[in-house]
Amino acid sequence: MPPAARPIVFVSDFGLGNEWVGICHSVLAGISPRSQLNVQQTHLARAGLEDAHTLTIKTTSASAEARRGSTYADFKKGEYGVIFDERGRMQIVRGDPESALEGLGLSPGHLVWISRSRVP
To answer: CB-side exposure of 77: number of CA atoms within 13 Å?
Structure first.
């Protein structure tokens, strides 16, 4: 993907913005064709989400609670999750045979909001 086409990560107290602002609570990012976000562990840390075991993933048409894992095998059928690929980028996944992109109504270029889950 050319540098100019890369999605930009926004983190702020309000979930929108173009710079780091104080203590942040959510991340906004664009999604790629591989359900890959331009979000890395450092972005989650700056948003205060590095210790969140479960994240809320919101789109303009749906939302889901996504548990952190290491591989696709960590998730049950239909369960949403987030993993980090070999380059350190976050991917939204869903246990086989379900699709995270379809379940969240996403296609490349859509925005995704990531925040701490309020579900216990």
So the answer is: 1
